[in-house]
Amino acid sequence: MTEAKHFRLDGLINAAADGLKSSMKNGVRPSVLEVNGLSTAYRSQTVLRDVSFAAPEGELIAIVGPNGAGKSTLIKTVLGLTPSLEGSVTAFGRPISQVRTRIGYVPQRESVDWDFPTHALDVVMMGRYGRLGWFRRPGRKEKAIAMECLAGVGMEAFAERQISQLSGGQQQRVFLARALAQDADLYFMDEPFAGVDAATEKAIVELLRRLRSEGKTVIVVHHDLATVPDYFDSVLLLNVSVQAFGPTAEVFTEANLQRTYGGRMAFAAAAAGAARGAEL
Amino acid sequence: MISLWDSIAALASDPNLRWITLGCMLLGLSSGMIGCFAYLRRQSLMGDTIAHTALPGICVAFLLTGVKSLPVFMLGAVAAGILGTLAIRVITARSRIKADAAMGIVLSSFFGIGIVLLTMIQHSGDGSQSGLDKFLFGQAAAMVASDVSLMGGVSLVLAVVCALLFKEFKLLAFDPAFAKGAGFSVSLLDFLMQALVVTAVVAGIQAVGVVLVAALLITPAVSARFWTERLGRMVVLSGIFGMASGLLGAWISSQAHQLPTGPVSVLAAAAVFLVSVLFGSKRGLLTVRLTRRRARLNLQQASASSVKEAG
Residue of A146, A168, B171, B218 with fewest CB within 10 Å of its CB? Predict the structure, then answer.
């Protein structure tokens, strides 16, 4: 209950207190990403209001909230892909623009044209472009890395396949392999589980756990409330502003979900019930 | 009637014509390469819009300077082209009008102004000597050596830039958000691409004309897509198709003096397109039909053998 009261306050003080609290809980675990008072708007509509949180290192973190809550916008704004009105973002203690090669990004699958004239391996190689920089072409080394990353998501047999001839789940895996090829320390994934079959979901979860075991931090926009406690260490409940943020076991409560999902309380309650069931 | 042999002999023996043809081929090469990226970014009509907005720029350049000089006309065309792109940007950003409608409005109004100015110039005293009307449909044969070198040189630079930035332009066309996340300046890349399109269009204005120059950006690229599923090959193929169109345009129009170069080049490109649609090895109608037939045969064989096994 103190949790709920705590997060009804917004702003910097809140974030600082939260950061302190989580670092106390986890021993000395530095945060890899610090978001302070981030706000943004689409035309006159506020999409994000005063969002602050500090992502602890080496965790799988879910961003959860109803449609239109600003989940994707939060990722894009943090990455500097869409402009913010106010607020600051630092990763590894520095502005995002200075640490781009340490950050990996998996956009929503629908964000690109899959009829583009290219094959799976080539898309994965794009993950190396950032490190290559301007003008330098990918060579044998990049190809070998890309092949390894494709194998990491069980897609090595499809390396030469034209991307429009891949299933939705396979396309998602190609995107994940591309992010692996970025060899980053902090990953942002925009709904990687959307519209994938059970096999791909399992492959993605295994991948996330492998990344965590390598000490990497992954922030995932997630839709399926029932799997949150099973998949994620921490959760950020978002509805324009931060409704709650912290370890899943503490924050993923019925009360917090109801607050986040507003009018759809019955749905949220059912999901939280399912979540508890899954935990037990 | 000129025989085919005579016209080939003319191409081989006339150094002036050879030079002009080479220039048009380089123009086709660079336009074809750049056009691939414009097509994949769904900006095929941008080139057409820029070309049409260039006409008033050329007219104003003539009215201001009073001289008929290709570099001056090119500057006017570039200025007007940039103005046109900015106008589209302002319209789409500040109102709810979508890009296609904005392009339609900007293209037609700029072109209208251009035609009015052109008519005024034609009817004025020395204006009729300006040869500005040739800019509508292009007349490669009328180009002087310095104009041809300018066009060929600019085209060559465009092709080289396009090849150097192949990786970056590919990423921009496929996934601009990822490109930005990976640390590339997407606004700079977008500007560069836009600049390449404007320059390619302006370079081709005298040879191919404002009305049809954009076809060299679109048609070879779309044709090439029917033959390959790899962007690199598509760019090379599109460049070759563009080169062939430029060659045929310059050559045929030089043989039949009443024919403007633009329409002939575009017809050549359209012929390549037709062949590609029908016989393209990846997406051509015939290939698609054969693949379906093979699939049906496989299906029938499979069911026949399973019936046999069951029996």
Answer: A168
Contact assessment for residue A48 and residue A241, using Cβ atoms and an 8 Å cutoff? yes
Q: What is the pLDDT of residue B13?
A: 77
Indicate whether B307 belongs to any domain. Answer: no
Provide the CA B193 distance to its chain's centre, in angstroms. Answer: 14
Q: Which residue of A has its CA nearest to B184?
A: A130
B177: contact with A, CB 8 A cutoff: yes
Decide if B171 and A182 are in contact by the 8 Å CB cutoff: no
Total domains in the fold of chain B:
1
Q: Are B34 and B173 in contact (CB under 8 A)?
A: no
CATH number of the domain enclosing B211:
1.10.3470.10
In-domain check, residue B302: no
Which of B 19-78 lie inside 8 A of A, CB atoms? 40
This complex has an ipTM of 0.86
Cα B276 to Cα A125, A163, A264, B271, distances in angstroms: 30, 22, 54, 9
Question: What average pLDDT does the segment A139-153 reach?
Answer: 95
Taking only Cα atoms into account, the Rg of chain B, rounded to an integer number of angstroms, comes to: 22
Q: What is the mean pLDDT of residues A238-243?
A: 94
Give B42-64 pLDDT, tens digit per residue: 988 889 999 999 999 999 999 99
CA atoms in the 13 A half-sphere facing the CB of A262: 10
Sheet holding A103-106, edge to edge: A103-106, A186-190, A217-221, A60-64, A234-239, A241-247
**Confidence class of residue A279 from pLDDT cuts 50, 70 and 90?**
very low
B54/chain A closest Cα distance in angstroms: 31
**Structural domain includes residue B304:** no
Segments forming the whole domain that contains residue B105: 4-280
